[in-house]
Description:
five-stranded antiparallel β-sheet; 167 residues; mainly beta; Immunoglobulin-like
Amino acid sequence: MQKKSWVFCLLAFLLASCLAKPDFPDTPTISFKSLALLPILNPTLKGKGDSLSLVIAFQDGDGNLGNNDSTQNFFVRAFKKEQNNFVPVVYSQGQNFNNIFPVLDIVGGSPLEGDLRYGVQFPYLGFPSTPSLKVGDIVKFSIQIQDRAGNRSNTVETNEVILGKYD
Length: 167
């Protein structure tokens, strides 16, 4: 019986050693997965904006994604469709929808792969921070992330959505 368990352990070890670590670049790479607009539930903002929910996939070769401090590492830009062209939405000074995601691998140094989910209230109607947006506008977003070494990922764009229209 003991001999069988050693054989099993040896086989498990050999199999595990045959599995190679993924070979991702140290600079993070991302791809767009999904974007959804939902009604804001906050009664103060109801009817004056949307809840933005987006998902991106990421890969990072050295596993140094995320921050434990106030350094922004998730960058979001909004674009509004005007005459078949997308133009950046101009916010009031200091306003943006950038954010911080926490450290994803406490040990670090190992390749990481997964999804990042980002949710934020996106007010637009009657707010001085986004005076150019209203219900019915067509918008899209660009997203980029940054690792702790300061390496910025590629930039991805979301699909187009209509403000105030929910599926």
